[in-house]
Amino acid sequence: MAFPTQVRLVEVGPRDGLQNEAEPIATATKLELIDRLGAAGLTHIEAASFVSPKWVPQMADHREVMSGLKRRPGVVYSALTPNLKGLEAALECGVEEVAVFGAASEAFSRKNINCSVAESLERFAPVLARAQEAGVRVRGYVSCVLGCPYEGEIAPAKVAEVSKALLEMGCYEISLGDTIGIGTPLKAKRMLEAVSREVPMEKLAAHFHDTYGQAIANLYAVLEEGVAVIDSSVAGLGGCPYAKGASGNVASEDVVYLLNGLGIESGIDLDKLADTGSWITQTIGRPNRAKVGVALAAK
Ligand SMILES: CC(C)(COP(=O)([O-])OP(=O)([O-])OC[C@H]1O[C@@H](n2cnc3c(N)ncnc32)[C@H](O)[C@@H]1OP(=O)([O-])[O-])[C@@H](O)C(=O)NCCC(=O)NCCSC(=O)C[C@@](C)(O)CC(=O)[O-]
């Protein structure tokens, strides 16, 4: 397979990047972050998460964030909705795309959304039906595709099975999450091989965390296989509340630098993105985990 000529980045910093922050972050800061990301050329920004505030307190202002967006033309602002309650609230705030999130690991599914994998799919079915009725697209996440913090190894066949179920239910895209950033390139390729037998490559996205420093290598491997959608987080912000020790997503700045080097079009202004990474990390008092961001800031 050849590299794609164009890649779409899904910026998950405002949601995945911030959800694990213990100190409340002002809604205005979240809105400014989202706006800066749009100004840097991101066309798909995951802005909020309509989950229980008891489970993820940092996302408790989901209504204010979703309703307060300064919407830029051509930019999709999406939100996580694990159930109908979340979806209805998101619809009231004018959401145009949502995501359901399942897992390839039973243990992770229980810790994250308090139900088995099969039960989660049952819960998602009415979410998809209602979203379809409202004309809202639904993305499907599968967590733990390259390993689970509780179960260890995850069979590629299980990832393929859950991905296929989400696709058949009506998800337009399946995002494959290396939740704990434990994968390596060969493993990523093997997993992708199994999944792409059930889900067309053009409907797959890579959502890799960088805990073990392998995310860029893993992305190179799956780009080579034809994956053309990458989830990333500005400044490498993030971690998962239900995956102890997991560090942030791969940094958007590092991904754009990789894509530029490969001659793959992303439409993103790297300097503006790097400025946004410097700004948000200074604002919330976090280290900037984007190597490219740090290098550019030091110039
Ligand atoms: C899914 C539930 C809600 C089930 O939680 P539950 O306790 O099984 O659900 P429930 O229906 O029994 O409701 C319990 C309480 O939550 C409320 N509730 C119920 N639903 C909602 C909602 N939508 N919005 C707001 N509140 C809600 C509900 O009203 C009730 O309130 P109470 O009566 O106790 O006051 C819970 O487990 C939850 O919120 N989990 C959040 C998990 C999460 O956000 N994890 C992080 C995101 S996933 C991720 O990061 C991975 C990903 C996507 O990035 C990919 C990767 O890297 O792998």
From TrEMBL:
Reaction(s) the record says it catalyses: (3S)-3-hydroxy-3-methylglutaryl-CoA = acetoacetate + acetyl-CoA
The EC number(s) this enzyme carries: 4.1.3.4
Biochemical pathway: Metabolic intermediate metabolism; (S)-3-hydroxy-3-methylglutaryl-CoA degradation; acetoacetate from (S)-3-hydroxy-3-methylglutaryl-CoA: step 1/1
Alphabetized InterPro entries for the sequence: Aldolase_TIM, HMG_CoA_lyase_AS, HMGL, PYR_CT
Keywords: Lyase, Metal-binding
Superkingdom of source: Bacteria
Residues annotated as transmembrane: none
An example Gene Ontology molecular-function term: lyase activity
Keyword Lyase appears in the UniProt entry: yes
All residue ranges annotated as the Pyruvate carboxyltransferase domain in the record: 7-274
Uppermost EC category: lyase
Similarity comment: Belongs to the HMG-CoA lyase family.
The protein's name: hydroxymethylglutaryl-CoA lyase
